[in-house]
């Protein structure tokens, strides 16, 4: 590197986030998607909490088999 060029000359010449065309529209789409996701998760949580006594709870998802491993460990003790 000669002539006083820095190693970051490419990085320094890039535009900053927010300077590009369409960033505002992308940010608005992301904001809307996050709002919808939050509403969906809240609705799911309300549905789970409304299951009252006498209603059977669904088994927790355990694709890693952690619950079975813990049961085996307790049996060894």
Describe this structure in words.
The protein is an all-alpha fold and 77 residues long. It has a domain at 20-46. It is 56% helix and 0% strand. It contains 3 helices and no strands. The radius of gyration is 26 Å and the shape is elongated. The mean pLDDT is 75.
Number of strands: 0
Low-confidence stretches: none
Shape category: elongated
Order of helices and strands: HHH
Report the major sheet. Answer: none
Question: How much strand?
Answer: under 5%
Q: How does the helix and strand content classify structurally?
A: mainly alpha
Helix share bin: 55-70%
Rg result: 26 Å
Number of helices, where a helix is a run of at least 4 consecutive DSSP H or I residues:
3
Mean pLDDT: 75
* Distance linking N and C termini: 66 Å
Blueprint of the fold:
Layout: H1 9-13, H2 23-49, H3 66-76
Question: Concise description?
Answer:
The protein is an all-alpha fold and 77 residues long. The chain contains three helices and no strands.
Structural features:
mainly alpha; 3 helices; 77 residues; single chain; elongated
């Amino acid at each position: 590197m000669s002539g006083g060029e820095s190693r970051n000359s490419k990085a320094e010449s890039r535009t900053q986030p927010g300077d590009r065309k369409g960033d505002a529209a992308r940010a608005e789409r992301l904001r809307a998607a996050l709002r919808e996701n939050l509403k969906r998760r809240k609705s799911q949580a309300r549905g789970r909490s409304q299951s009252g006594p006498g209603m059977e709870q669904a088994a927790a998802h355990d694709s890693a088999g952690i619950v079975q491993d813990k049961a085996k460990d307790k049996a060894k003790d």
